[in-house]
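Incident review: delayed structure delivery

Summary: a single-chain prediction request sat in the queue longer than the usual turnaround. Root cause was a stuck worker, restarted by the on-call engineer. No data loss occurred. The affected request and its eventual output are reproduced below so the record is complete for anyone auditing the incident later.

Affected input:
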Amino acid sequence: MRFLAALSILAILFSSCKEGGDSPSLFDSYDHQSWRNYTADSIIQPALVDYHQACEDMSAAFLPFQQNPNQTHLDSLQLRFEEAYKAFMVVEGYGFGASANLQVNTFSNTFPTDTHTIHQNFTSTYDLTAVNQIDAQGFPALDYLLFFGGDSMVLENFKNKQGQLAYTQDIMGRLEQMALLLSTEWNSNYGPSFKDAAGPQVGGALGEFVNAFNFNIELSKRARIGIPVGNFSAGIPLPSKSEALYSGLSNELLIANIEARKRDFSKGGGKSLAGLLNHLNAQHRGEPLADRIDQELDLVLSTVQGFQNPVSELVISNPSQVQNTFNALQSTVVLTKVDMPSQMGVQITYQDNDGD
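Output delivered after worker restart:
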């Protein structure tokens, strides 16, 4: 099954009560404007610029490969692909506002990819903005085109195959176009609106950011780890559902993603989610909640860094190791989706249907 979780707005009013009876004045006395400015200008906007540049670099690396598909050009293209995919792992966590309107995450990284439709598109017309093309494009499609069968097979598949070359170029062009639109829209419209959107409520900057932060962590828990290891298929591993199935980059991508969420949480010191929690004196079992969240994110990273093989292989050879990562992500979600929003008065407005 493909993981395409949909956000749904709940028709209830949130409560701004703080766990443990903390005074509401603590929330009001925090410098929310500085947090919004820092998050917009020093976290989100630079990530969008970096991602667009990485997509441009990938497209540029394709041109010599298109003219002469040889090993040197393939090596360069695969490297740029990896860099762009890792850059996407960062911006994937900002799936609100312009990103949601453009459906960037959906069109860029729905996996597993539909190889049958990909091959059909080599010799037929297609519209990459159509819903029936969602899982035949983006990074998963490029993962298949640039890595399936090993380098020798990839080079053979591309030689004198104008339809395949044209389709690959179109996929890269669409990723680059969406990255540019996202960056432009943020700079001209949504960034300024984010800075002005005070309050933790639905539509406020804090509410949007905390929801997107949690949604992305749960995406990793479910789609990147839980589904492949078999947690949603009666314990039967599904290695073909793994991210980066053909390149084997699943571990590197997950590390890039969790490192980005860790920066989202704590970068900026007092001007961060961690800084807000500390200002609120938020506690978890007698320990600062911000410290506990940092510790859990570090635990997730350490489990993935211990992987010796891609997720698609580990779910068969050592499923307990992958399960440890799922468990660490599950523990993280309890803190970030339940404890943190409760302290901040933020309402979680999406549904994941798999419990916490």
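Verification: Residues 1-23 have pLDDT under 50 and may be disordered.
Action items: add queue-age alerting; document worker restart procedure.
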